[in-house]
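Design job #97: recover the sequence.
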């Protein structure tokens, strides 16, 4: 045989929660729940609040709420849960079987009491609304920070971050863009080419340079080309053979001194043998 309090306590322990956790979940004071589990219903509040608290607590524990409220009314307690004409009698409960998931309990010894008018029509009895507790908010270190100040600083920090990222991107684009568009510096001229005097082929009139080969190994010193009047063509100062379309149309310049490429009676195409290497 179980009392109302024993059924509430057993169901709470079966859920594995404490009085404090149940109070936070149901918004009912923990001392009230403790009294209910001890079969003490004198909480200095009107009876309508007592019934509402029992109903809410029973629903939370998945117990038949209306059955427990009817059992409470059958105790014959007066206003605020104070004993009236009837006293607490454990025999009225009989043997109870508490089922899981809120199934109605069975009374094997006594018939269930007739439901009251409030049980038949739940809407006629307003359920008391417990006081709303403000949500728990952990305190910030150093007394917390003002939300408006945080919001304002957040806006400025975000704007500053955007500006910094934009500057970084602009700098990267400018760096790679300038390096890509800047003309490459010409390769350094070998020291030997700078210090060594070159030989220049000077055109007196339009002429074709058919080939310029080294005497030692017949390798091409410069590619074939055509020269206009007054145009010069530099070649390395090595012994060479120059094949031209008109020998009389060509002069040789070395160290700013010009030499005729052919004699007075020599004209037409031919090959000139040049060697100024001894005059370096």
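Job complete. Output follows.
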């Amino acid at each position: 045989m179980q009392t109302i309090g024993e059924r509430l306590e057993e169901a709470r322990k079966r859920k594995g929660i404490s009085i404090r956790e149940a109070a936070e979940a149901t918004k009912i004071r923990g001392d009230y729940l403790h009294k209910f589990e001890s079969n003490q219903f004198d909480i200095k509040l009107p009876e309508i609040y007592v019934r509402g608290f029992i109903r809410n607590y029973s629903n939370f524990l998945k117990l038949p709420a209306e059955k427990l409220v009817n059992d409470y009314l059958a105790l014959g307690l007066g206003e605020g849960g104070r004993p009236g004409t009837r006293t607490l009698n454990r025999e009225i409960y009989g043997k109870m079987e508490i089922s899981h998931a809120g199934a109605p309990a069975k009374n094997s010894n006594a018939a269930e009491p007739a439901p009251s008018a409030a049980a038949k029509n739940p809407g006629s009895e307003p359920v008391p609304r417990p006081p709303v507790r403000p949500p728990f908010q952990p305190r910030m270190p150093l007394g917390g920070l003002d939300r408006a100040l945080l919001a304002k600083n957040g806006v400025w920090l975000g704007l500053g971050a955007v500006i910094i990222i934009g500057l970084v991107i602009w700098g990267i684009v400018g760096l790679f863009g300038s390096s890509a568009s800047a003309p490459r510096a010409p390769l350094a001229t070998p020291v030997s080419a700078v210090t060594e005097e070159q030989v220049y082929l000077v055109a007196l009139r339009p002429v074709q340079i058919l080939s310029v080969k080294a005497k030692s190994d017949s390798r091409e010193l410069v590619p074939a080309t055509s020269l206009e009047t007054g145009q010069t063509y530099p070649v390395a100062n090595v012994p060479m053979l120059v094949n031209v379309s008109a020998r009389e149309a060509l002069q040789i310049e070395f160290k700013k001194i010009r030499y005729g490429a052919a004699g007075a009676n020599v004209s037409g195409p031919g090959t000139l043998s040049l060697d100024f290497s001894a005059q370096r």
